[in-house]
Design brief:
- Helix content is 54%, strand content 17%.
- It is built from twelve helices and seven strands.
- Helix 2 (28-44) packs across helix 3 (53-72), helix 5 packs antiparallel against helix 6 and helix 6 (130-137) crosses helix 7.
């Protein structure tokens, strides 16, 4: 980044902008990308046409986040507004979740459209007016109000207890999967895997040379049995209140495995082997189950 007046002006807004972007994306690497793109757009903009720098950059960052959400189907978690803009400025410094309720909100917010999420978060957490939100989203003030209202209704009508129970059930399913993998228990694996289960890896191969994408319970079981040695060095952890499997340990991680559960069965899981990706994902903190 070039050092100069432009950089100083942008830097003065950066802690707030990072806080805003993190509310939407919940991933530091994505926030870094957004901030880099926002800087590029600011550096190339006609400064004479920017009458309110904070408002201009807020619009740019929010729209970039909206594009990311739409492209990647990533959804945000709902934490207390008091955790957002502390003296540390960056929300990732305050990601110690205080209850299962907040984890349940994350699941519920996944049901919202991107526009509903942004309208709700900007208004109910950051106290933007609906006129400002409409301008950012390119919709009318009435439409922005409607989006936030619909989001609020979905949240209020959701059964938090049921969502929390489902989240606890996910922990049991993933723990059972790991136990079966460690023991080479085929019947145990069958009991927790969806017939159409898919495994995705972030590299061209894992240790056995399997492809980066395989599907079907038979193929998954064969690979799991073949990689039984990995399972012996693995444990179930909570990452942002979601159960994951970590091969190795938090100080020396080898593989991070995240899961998608459907109807009480593991429908998809992702194996992440890239060290930098694993450490980035673990920034919010990881705890043994």
């Amino acid at each position: 980044m070039t050092i100069g007046p432009d950089s100083d002006a942008f830097a003065s807004q950066e802690p707030y902008l990072r806080a805003l972007a993190y509310r939407f994306l919940q991933k530091t690497t994505d926030v870094d990308d957004i901030m880099q793109e926002a800087w590029i757009r600011y550096s190339q903009a006609n400064k004479g046409e920017i009458f309110n720098l904070e408002a201009w950059l807020t619009t740019v960052v929010t729209r970039l986040c909206l594009d990311t959400i739409r492209q990647n189907q990533k959804f945000v978690s709902y934490n207390s507004a008091t955790n957002l803009l502390t003296n540390n400025n960056l929300p990732e410094a305050n990601l110690e979740l205080t209850s299962d309720v907040e984890s349940a909100f994350k699941i519920i917010l996944a049901e919202l459209t991107p526009s509903q999420q942004i309208s709700f978060i900007l208004h109910d957490i950051f106290s933007f007016t609906f006129s400002e939100i409409g301008s950012i989203l390119g919709i009318s003030e009435v439409a922005a109000r409607r989006q936030a209202s619909r989001a609020r209704a979905i949240i209020q009508n959701s059964n938090l207890d049921a969502v929390r129970r489902e989240n606890n059930n996910e922990q049991q399913i993933i723990s059972a999967f790991l136990t079966a993998a460690q023991q080479g228990d085929i019947e145990g694996l069958i009991s927790v895997l969806h017939p159409e289960v898919t495994r995705i890896a972030d590299s061209d191969s894992i240790e056995t040379g399997e492809p980066s994408h395989i599907s079907g319970i038979k193929n998954i079981i064969n690979e799991t049995i073949a990689l039984q040695a990995n399972a012996q060095d693995a444990d179930v952890y909570l990452l942002s209140r979601k159960p994951v499997i970590l091969v190795g340990n938090p100080e020396n991680p080898r593989l991070l495995i995240t899961f998608k559960i459907y109807n009480g069965k593991i429908y998809r899981y992702n194996i992440i082997s890239d060290y930098s990706k694993i450490n980035s994902l673990m920034l919010p903190g990881i705890k043994p189950l």
